[in-house]
Amino acid sequence: MKNYVILISGRGSNMQALIDARLPGACVGVISNRPDAAGLAWAAERGVPTAVIDHKAFPSRDAFDAALAAEIEARGAELVLLAGFMRVLTEPFVRRFEGRLVNIHPSLLPSFPGLHTHEAALQTGVRVHGCTVHFVTPSLDCGPIIVQAAVPVLPGDDADGLAARVLRQEHLVYPQAARGILAGRCRLEADRVVWSDDATPPESALRVPAGG
Ligand code: GAR
Predict the structure, then answer these.
(1) What is the predicted pLDDT for the residue at 206?
(2) What positions carry a catalytic annotation?
């Protein structure tokens, strides 16, 4: 069984989806950079160990990332799942966990990296929006893509409605991706994601790959 940690900064709905999915691994910690992250209480109530590493207590990004890495390693985690973790990680941190560091982003990358993705989707008039689970590389919201899910942008949508539609998909694809990695069916190989069973989606699928 593999150990994994989940890093959050706030609400933690993706963290909940991951824990509720009963992944083939043990969640050895939910770590937040914000003491007031709502997700911490949810995890603690379910007996998942929690920790806070408050970024405000550190003089630099490097110092914060070093403490974060030490905490992750002390817990024996082999996989690090960023779930609404709103800190930019330094290159040494990313390199240290290369191939074992995964993020979910609320857009179809490489469109709309950064913040306010739903507003940007509405502003540009894209008809299809969605979310992406990807391995993390040193560039922000970049890296080999594991799973994507698409949703339509409908007439009359506002950012909140669109965000809610995307979030429902996030809660499906993140456990799918994490399950694939923990089960050894999905890995990073020479900067590309390889799924061992070559899941081929039906033509109508908006979740790619569809299996898992
Ligand atoms: C999610 O929509 C996630 O994709 C996004 O923050 C939200 C966190 O919600 N992450 C990013 O924007 C990272 N760049 P949650 O705390 O309920 O999971």
Answers:
(1) 67
(2) 105
Q: For residue 9, report the distance from its CA to the centre of ligand 1, in Å.
A: 9
Residue numbers in the chain where pLDDT is lower than 50: 201-205
Q: What is the 3-state secondary structure (H, E, C) of 177-204?
A: HHHHHHCCCEEEECCEEEECCCCCCCCC
Domain-by-domain residue ranges, the chain? 1-97, 104-212
Phi, psi at 73, each rounded to 5°: -70, -35
CB 67 within 8 A of CB 53: yes
Is the CB of residue 121 below 6 angstroms from any atom belonging to ligand 1? no
CA 83 to ligand 1 centroid distance, Å: 6
Architecture of 1-97 per CATH? Answer: 3-Layer(aba) Sandwich (3.40)
Atom of ligand 1 nearest to the CA of 163: 2
pTM exceeds 0.70:
yes
1-97 and 104-212: identical CATH topology: yes
Instruction: Give the model's pLDDT for residue 140.
Output: 87
Is 104 a pocket residue for ligand 1 (Cβ < 6 Å)? yes
Q: 127 alpha carbon to ligand 1 midpoint, in Å?
A: 21
Name the architecture of domain 104-212. 3-Layer(aba) Sandwich (3.40)
